[in-house]
Amino acid sequence: MKLTKLGDLDARIAGGTDREGGGTGPVVILLHGFGAPGDDLAPLWRTLAAPRGTRFVFPAAPIDLGPRYMGGRAWWYIDIEERMRRAAMGELPDPDQVPDGLVAARTKVLALVDEVVRTLQPAPGKLVLGGFSQGGMLALDVALHSPVALAGLVVLSGTHIAGREWAARFEARRGLPVFMSHGRVDEILPFRVAEGLRGILTAQGLPVEWVPFQGGHGIPAPVADAVGAFLSRVLA
Length: 236
Hints:
Elements lengths: L1 E5 L2 E8 L3 E3 L4 E5 L23 E5 L3 E2 L8 E2 L5 H9 L13 H19 L6 E6 L1 H12 L6 E5 L6 H5 L10 E6 L7 H13 L4 E6 L7 H14 L2
Parallel strand pairs: 2-3, 4-5, 4-8, 8-9, 9-10, 10-11
Antiparallel strand pairs: 1-2, 2-5, 6-7
Helix pairs in contact: 2-3
């Protein structure tokens, strides 16, 4: 694994022929969640059953959350305590809300995707974009704003944001395979909202592989196995 700069973001690259992104294999970009360190998802490159030679890119979010989060980072700031309080009261977040900082985060990841295409040079249609939690929301947002050909999209424990903006852009991604997972007792991002997003994506012509699980906000082993199978299929 090597640490490099892609656009304005620090990123770790793994896999390929030399474990540092060498070769000409497909590329998978995975964005970590709020409060996690930049290398939070990096161990997945050893466990996901992607095609041989697949390269993995793990960018670190630009916002350092300071000592409170012990090295954690964010794509935009979220008041987690307030979100959990509202969720405990049964309040659902507004799916049309555009978070402060989304546009800035999108701009940085769009630049990263362009740099990945330029430097790693995956074959056309051999690039997958995805993420966990806040990273999953951002991955979907970037996919809807980028012209780059994608083989698939992975949204792990994400939720619906920027609803009106997204609705106008789904047509351009019609047919894009999507993998979604969500815990039925997620204490941070309600299951019902993610399930609703899955229905919208399907209705808009984006085929969704939906993997709900009995658990909270995380990536259990069966989900990782299912993601690997998804990558094997869309990158074959």
